[in-house]
Amino acid sequence: MSKKTVKNRHTSNKAAAKQTSAKTQGAAKEAAAGKALKDESNRIFQERLARHHDELRWLYMELYDNDDMFAELCSQMKEYYDQRNQSLRALDAKRGSEGKWYRKRDMVGMMMYIDNFAGSIKGVQEKLSYLEQCNVNYIHLMPFLDSPKGRSDGGYAVADFRKVKPELGTMDDLAELAEKCHEKGISLCMDFVMNHTSEDHEWAVKARQRDGEYMSRYFFYADPSIPQEYEKTVPQVFPTTAPGNFTYLPELGHYVMTTFYPYQWDLNYRNPRVFNEMMYNFLYLANQGMDIIRIDAVPYIWKELGTNCRNLQQVHTIVRMMRMIGEIVCPGIVLLGEVVMEPEKVAPYFGTVEKPECHMLYNVTTMAATWNTVATRDIRLLRKQMDIVCSLPKEYTFLNYLRCHDDIGWGLDYATLSEWGMKEVPHKKYLNDYFQGKTEGSVSRGELYNEDLVTGDARFCGTTASMCGIESAGFERDEVKMDHAITKDVMLHAYMFTQSGIPMLYSGDEIGQVNDYTYKEDADKAPDSRYIHRGKFCWDLVEKIKEKDSVQGRIFNALSELEAIRRKEAMFSADAEVYTKDYSDSSILWIVRKTEKEELHAVFNFSDVDKTVWMPETAEYTDLLTGKRETIEKTVLPSWDFLWLKK
User: Fold this and answer.
1) Can you tell me whether residue 576 is helix, strand or coil?
2) Can you give the pLDDT at residue 2?
3) pLDDT of residue 422
4) Which of 140, 173, 328, 584 could form a disulfide with 121 if both were Cys (CB 3.0 to 4.6 A apart)?
5) Spatial distance between the Cα atoms of 199 and 258, rounded to a whole number of angstroms
């Protein structure tokens, strides 16, 4: 072998060794970086866990007195934390640095049924540009988890918490939608049905097979005297369509608790296995990219014989633990509580400043009082309700809405109404007659839900547009009535935007979509009149928003203008002082929003006639709708119209 060959081989070996060394060093650096990243991740988790551990353990042991199950819960929290992808962890960190991101005044929500709006989850992704056009940055996807056809209660009877309805898509589709939404600054909300499962759920199926472990996850009783004892103190939710709180299963010879419908079996949260497994489902869904978790039917979660099984202290313990579990694993998410109760029972679900529970709650009583005001032209009850809300701590965040997927239950302050000569039963009848269009002068259209022919009680169903008269005006082809209906529709939305909290639109309201009576042609939907306002989204109407004189264009553009003003003006911030102003006319609602430098006078005429409105003082005001600035002593406010005046 020549010296040249030996030299070349030596050079080659040296280069190879150098290359191997570089690769080794690179791998070592990569491993070190990976270890550092993992160490930092573990540090963050342990820091969050340490912050909440003692209180979480104390509450858990108070309910369950089970160390092993608590240890399992902590272990699983770490597993779900490790599974949370980097983009979601980055979002957690961003929101943590911003603080209470959901309270920004540019927040506008929209709730929708996936199939009605776009057919599928992928369809929703394709329509994100339209939602951006609507100024929406918070989408509430109505129940989409797997549920039995014909026995789903609109999706609230969940058969599998980790599976999307096949006709809507997959969990991968959901995660991809969440990712695309986050890129556009849009948050996703979903329903988490904690109180019950479908009778088709895996647990229920095994319980039907007499598996004791799974029977213990529900409320099963062979002795009929126990259900009878419950019935003595527990009110019925649907006395007409689903009377009672138990369903008898002849094949088992047992009764099972079913607060809502016979196919929805109440979960037994006295069993720690139920709590743990439902928390794992909660964390799994959060890891798909959900930003807002709506806890369905919160007050019903804990059952206790001899009580009304509503709003028990153990419910607050569970929600508080859920809040802490979220702050440990996925602190960027928000809990929205569905508490359809009177005001004094709603506010406690916020918890306290030191020990918070839900981040947000529905402003349900204000919604019902709003439509009461529309029907009576009397703002007194609404003003009293708003004063209650305004007196609560500013840290409390309400979700405000005119309409949602559900019926309107007339849960009003009847003690106060009685003082004014309005008794509960005849007043409810008046409201239901008015909104069905049976009362002279009413322009509303809709249908009753769950009418009780014995007591005369009932709830009401209809879209915002139909309740404002857009449906009847269109049917009559009356342009004057249509003008009044659109004015009323826009005024009510302006009033909703004036309230503190997050305004929530129901899909279709932005284009004035009216009642859909075709639900009666579907055997699965026909018995449930709530489907009258759960119709398919009319994409043909969207084309008309470009026509400024069309019904759709007038409503869509008016709402866009209101949303733009709300984003711009500091008076709409969550920290502004808000109160109602006493005014001599009981059809005029006057709301003041105040910062250190400015104040907004929002005045709403809930009557069929024009009103002369006198300002509290002669001063210079800017009309936020026109931009016109002038000194005002008094002004004429047309019927069902409003003013946004900045001083």
Assistant:
1) coil
2) 59
3) 92
4) 173
5) 10
Judge whether 613 and 603 are in contact, CB under 8 Å: yes
Given a cut of 60, whether residue 635 has pLDDT beyond it is yes
Number of neighbours of residue 443 by Cβ within 10 angstroms: 21
Eight-class DSSP state of 396:
-
In this model, does residue 460 exceed pLDDT 60? yes
Residues whose CB falls within 8 Å of the CB of residue 295, separated by 6 or more in sequence, listed in order: 192, 194, 319, 322, 335, 336, 337, 338, 358
Local confidence band at 13 (pLDDT 50, 70, 90 cut-offs): low
- Helix H or strand E segment including 436: none
pTM exceeds cut of 0.90: yes
Q: Where are the alpha helices (DSSP H) in 304-355?
A: 313-329, 343-346
Question: Which two structure tokens, joined as six digits, stand for 61?
Answer: 């042991």
pLDDT 10s digits, 473-504: 999 999 999 999 999 999 999 999 999 999 99
The single residue listed with the structure tokens 């597993």 is 79
- The H or E element that residue 584 is part of is none
460 forms bridges with which residues in the sheet? 408, 448
Orientation of helix 313-329 relative to helix 3-64, angle to 10°: 170
What average pLDDT score do residues 92-120 get?
Answer: 95
**Residue 327: which of 39, 52, 95, 60 has the closest Cα?**
52
Residue 109 is classified by DSSP as E
Residue 596 has pLDDT above 80, yes or no: yes
- Long-range contacts of 89-93, Cβ-Cβ distance < 8 Å, separation of 24 or more: 91/182, 91/332, 92/330, 92/331, 92/332
Spatial contact of 410 and 431, defined as CB atoms under 8 Å apart: yes
